[in-house]
Amino acid sequence: MTSTPDINLLHELEPVAAANLNRHLDLATEWMPHEYVPWSQGRDFDTLPWDPEQSRLSDVAQIAFEVNLLTEDNLPSYHREIATIFGRDSAWGAWVHRWTAEEGRHSIVMRDYLMVTRGVDPVGLERGRMHQMQKGFDSGDKTPLRTIAYVSFQELATRISHRNTGRFTQDPIAEKLLTRVAADENLHMIFYRNLVAAALELTPSATVQAIAEELMTFQMPGTGIENFETKAKQIAKAGIYNLRNHHDDVVTPLLRHWKFFELTGLDAPAEQARENVGHYLTALDGLARRYEEKYAAAGQGTLAATSA
């Protein structure tokens, strides 16, 4: 149940949510999933069963595409989470439903592409979807402050993951498709990023603590995917999404936008939280550098991250 302080905060932020919802609707481009799928390449699976040789994607590209899609598949759980936290009234409710409708296109177009091009094993993909959706997603009863901080990081991380997966496939059709999906994720990130900025003005110390908590415990929503850790390591080695991407292209730009290390007038717990974030970033950068050196020594090239 949402507490009274949380309800009050949501009420105070509602005008900001309304303004950013209107901004989003002005900027969002209508697009049709069916226009991004090469339907002419399709064949019936009953007459031509799937075979690994049919995929134009490398093994790592298949893994990255699959992880991204299975993450998107859990949309019903994500909708439940944010509808419970933000409510279904006013601009908050309008945003929840708009966001859900836009996110629904992502799994549609990604799955259609993979089925038509025979990019991955359809049986394995369906079993992965069943596993992921039956497991669901639980945010752990986050407060609204922690939620908007978390989704700011998560939406940007998802954007980078989709964009880099598209580039890594070396397939122009897949890259165009995932670039389109990434553009949606970027607009979603901006909505939440702006809400966090407004919260920093209303209640700076509490918001700084929420940012710190979410940053230092961050996990992608796809962590429940079967064999996720093994798959994530392969994705990281390929440079699609790794610690360097996370530090340079997700965490650092958001903290810079919020002027996180320049804020004044914080209480003692918030100051301590900010100091902890500083130490965390130093450690994250050092760990990313060590992995880069390890991969370089092993002769494994990586895909450069994109923040454009």
From TrEMBL:
Coiled coil: none annotated. InterPro entries: Fatty_acid_desaturase-2 (IPR005067), Ferritin-like_SF (IPR009078), RNR-like (IPR012348). The keyword Transmembrane helix does not apply. One of its GO terms (biological process) is fatty acid biosynthetic process. It comes from the Bacteria. CDD domains: Acyl_ACP_Desat. Keywords: Fatty acid biosynthesis, Fatty acid metabolism, Iron, Lipid biosynthesis, Lipid metabolism, Metal-binding, Oxidoreductase. One of its GO terms (cellular component) is cytosol. Binds 2 iron ions per subunit. Pfam families: FA_desaturase_2 (PF03405). Belongs to the fatty acid desaturase type 2 family. GO terms for molecular function: metal ion binding; stearoyl-[ACP] desaturase activity. This is Fatty acid desaturase type 2. The lineage of its organism: Bacteria, Bacillati, Actinomycetota, Actinomycetes, Frankiales. Fe cation 1 binds at E72, E103, H106, E185. Its cofactor is Fe cation; Fe(2+). It comes from Candidatus Protofrankia datiscae. The keyword Cell inner membrane does not apply. Homodimer. Fe cation 2 binds at E103, E155, E185, H188.
